[in-house]
Design brief:
- The chain is an alpha/beta fold.
- The chain has two domains: 227 residues, Type I PLP-dependent aspartate aminotransferase-like (Major domain) (Aspartate Aminotransferase, domain 2, 3-Layer(aba) Sandwich), CATH 3.40.640; 127 residues, Aspartate Aminotransferase, domain 1, CATH 3.90.1150.10.
- Helix content is 37%, strand content 15%.
- The protein has twelve helices and 13 strands.
- The strands form three sheets. It has a seven-stranded mixed beta sheet, with helices on both faces.
Length: 372
């Protein structure tokens, strides 16, 4: 009997143990340790930004980004309907209104051709979210931001090592954010990063992540922040991972290529787009969508694959269909058909960095059997 194949397993066989040992040997395990600044500096250089601000996860990075930009009650922020809830939650918590746009049926990213019609006098920002393996087509979005004087929040949580027109994802936003959850190309266990070129925004993000302590008057607060700090232990892990990011990206693309070859002749599934005019797929996850000719949905495929020892995950569920937002009275009578379809018929299969060729073939054989 084949052993279980998890949907993700990270690679931690570089300098991780060495750097973690240094944390323990020196006693620097809190957010004050030297690996924090080393990781921030190295990561910001990698994505071509002036500043990096390490935080405790990618979701709180979005919270800090929205508040740092001064977005709040009476403002609107445009974002994709198809994304993780962290994006909309950051906007709602700020008091602003999230305004949704449907996704492209092939890349699963926000449909940039639908953004302008959602812009109003209240629009303050566009939150761009790069989904699964390909970046959003950024030039049309940047042109809209220039035309309407809007800020760009770039969620690059899934795009470590990806580029748009040769320029690093994470380099396009007024503030850009990353996640270092274990399924990302770089992991710190839990963790995140904000990157920016703006001195004021960098200072705001540093203050917000650290309870808005003041220099010289540490326990006197003019405003409320959060404890969003990353620990030295996490940063040590991240620095070791960053050293191998190029290798990790190459492996992800090899995994994607192998799956593409194995599924080339399989009918009934929509595979990831291999490349666009502006990027080659990085395969953060290897997702697929069941075509209409398949009589069952993604949940049934995932159930059957689990029975055969294969881990899977569903696609994101659209923001306008989230019960928590419906209870708030948001998105009444709104429909986003592409997002609704891929949420129900989309899923992804094992594609973690520790995946072996034998496991890839095992996964492919099981999937072919399930959907035949």
């Amino acid at each position: 009997m084949n052993s279980f194949v998890p949907v993700n397993e990270p690679l931690l066989n570089g300098n991780e143990k060495k750097y973690l040992g240094e944390c323990i040997d020196t006693g620097w395990i809190s957010s004050e340790g030297p690996f924090i600044k080393q990781f921030e500096n190295a990561f910001s250089v990698y994505v071509g930004r002036k500043y990096g601000i390490a935080v405790s996860n990618g979701s709180v990075a979005l919270d800090a980004a929205v508040v740092a930009l001064g977005i709040g009650e009476g403002d609107e922020v445009i974002l994709p309907a198809f994304t993780i809830i962290s994006c909309a939650a950051a906007i709602v918590r700020s008091g602003a209104l999230p305004v949704l746009v449907d996704c492209d049926p092939l890349t699963w990213n926000i449909d940039v051709n639908q953004i302008e019609q959602k812009i109003t006098a209240k629009t303050r920002a566009i939150m761009v979210v790069h989904i699964y393996g390909l970046p959003v087509d950024m030039e049309p979005v940047l042109e809209l931001a220039r035309k309407y004087d809007l800020k760009i929040i770039e969620d690059a949580a899934e795009m470590h090592g990806q580029t748009y027109m040769g320029r690093a994802c994470g380099s396009f936003g007024d503030i850009s954010t990353f996640s270092f959850y274990p399924n990302k190309h770089i992991t710190t266990g839990e963790g995140g990063m904000l990157v920016t070129d703006d001195d004021f925004l960098a200072d705001r993000c540093r203050s917000l992540r650290n309870l808005c302590f003041q220099a010289g008057k540490r326990f006197v607060h003019e405003e409320l922040g959060w404890n969003f700090r990353m620990t030295n232990i996490q940063a040590a892990l991240g620095l070791a991972q960053l050293e191998r990011l190029h290798e990790f990206v190459e492996k992800k693309r090899r995994i994607g290529k192998k799956y593409n070859e194995l599924f080339m002749d399989v009918k009934g599934i929509q595979l990831p787009v291999i490349k666009t005019d502006f990027a080659e797929n990085i395969y953060w996850v290897y997702g697929m969508v069941l075509n209409d000719e398949i009589s069952f949905d993604a949940q049934e495929v995932m159930r059957q694959m689990a029975d055969k020892q294969i881990g899977t995950r569903p696609f994101f569920f659209p923001m306008h269909e989230q019960p928590v937002f419906q209870k708030m009275g948001l998105f009444k009578n709104e429909k986003y058909p592409v997002s609704e379809k891929i949420a129900r018929r989309g899923f992804y299969i094992p594609s973690g960095l520790a995946l072996t060729d034998e496991q890839i073939e095992q996964v492919a054989a099981v999937l072919k059997e399930v959907i035949k």
